[in-house]
Protein: DHR13 reductase
Amino acid sequence: QETGNPEVRFMQLDLASLRSVRAFASAFLRQEPHLHLLINNAGVSAGGMTEDGFSLSFQVNHLGHFLLTQLLLERLQSCAPSRVVIVASRAHCAGRLHPDTLGRPPPGPLSAFQDYCDSKLANMLHARELATRLQGTQVTCYAVHPGFVNTELFRHTPLWLKPFFLPLVWLFFREAAEGAQTSLHCATQEGLECFSGRYFADCRLQEPWPLARDDRLARAVWEASERLVGLVGAGESPSP
Structure:
């Protein structure tokens, strides 16, 4: 209603529920014949567990997006050229991923923060491995750091921490429109196809943290993610 554009449609999707992700993808594929751009933008920084048994931040930020992308991938390929933009974060530099414990809350007093950083490293590796698997398909993907943006991402910050945290948000964080610029750049800028799988910040190509460039880790996280979201069984071979 605010845009005045009758072509804008709202469809319900809860990334904290793999059942909801599957229902959304099924409804979308029935109703929409075209898909040229997928921006995996949702994020949360919070403790707690999902109905699927995963830590909340890791499922919303990575596993839900991973499943959604896989379920829509055939449509993206049939509508190529098309793009996938994965909103990661510079916080990926503090990520520590172990494929055999993926989706479990990290130990320690800063578990929620570490879980967020881990999910952002997973976002980076998702983009890298997705680009590898999509070579020659005219579907490209990009990981982006939007900057530190004043949205509701940190609405679950503990009450005792908010008096210290909120002044920093007001002083140093970007507004949402500014934070969207790098995502829009990767979604619309011509000539980025040769940078598929790479990382952008401030609308420029950036070099990520070394772990985010680890191809072996990227493949291991991909295969673990496939198993966790039910795309392959425990004894099945992962996708090529």
Observations:
- The chain has one domain: 41-229.
